[in-house]
């Protein structure tokens, strides 16, 4: 999918179907994109992940990924081809908003490699006792355990805002179970 999106972008750029904003002409925009990529990816991921949990898509597409209850790096990239097409679609924003092609490649790298990282079985990268980077692995492991929580990532708190956040506590588990009971009880 990465290659398909990259070829599509480069073909559209070569044929001048899309505009670009090269670093040499727009250095501030280049750095703004770097800062905005986590927001764009996080927002896109939350909403497409919720979509993938719709009954039809879950049953026929996303179930392939959720067969991995005990997650690891390979389970992060274990997806049905349709899910992969949807999941990796956030770089399509660069077809609408002019961007430096380097940003598009960075975006594709992040989208493609991030699932292996967030399913890898560790919560953070440390240097001695100093946290260098969160992997949000625990957050996503809870999603694989309970299925209907933690659809997004920790970069953008959409799970908190939309009431789908589970922090791993017994209280959050009970709240989730009550929510399920209410939804089943409603006609």
Detail the topology: elements first, then pairings:
Blueprint: H1 2-14, H2 27-52, H3 55-66, H4 73-76, H5 81-87, H6 101-118, E1 124-127, E2 130-134, H7 137-146, H8 158-161, H9 170-185
Antiparallel strand pairs: 1-2
Helix pairs in contact: 1-6
Descriptive keywords:
187 residues, mainly alpha, 9 helices, 2 strands, globular
State the oligomer: single chain
Summing up helix and strand content along with how strands pair, one would put the structural category as mainly alpha
Instruction: Write down the domain tally.
Output: 1
Number of discrete helical segments:
9
Biggest pleated sheet = 2 strands, antiparallel
Give the CA-based shape: globular
Order of helices and strands: HHHHHHEEHHH
Distance between the termini: 40 Å
Beta fraction of the residues? under 5%
Indicate the low-confidence ranges by residue numbers.
none
| Fraction of residues in H or I helices | 55-70%
The total beta strand count reads 2
Strand arrangement within the widest β-sheet reads: 1-2
Mean pLDDT over all positions = 87
Task: Please characterize this protein's 3D structure.
- Helix content is 59%, strand content 5%.
- The chain is mainly α and 187 residues long.
- It has one domain.
- A two-stranded antiparallel sheet has the order 1-2.
- Helix 1 packs antiparallel against helix 6.
- The longest helix is centred in the N-terminal third of the chain and has 26 residues.
- The radius of gyration is 18 Å and the shape is globular.
- The chain starts with a helix and ends with a helix.
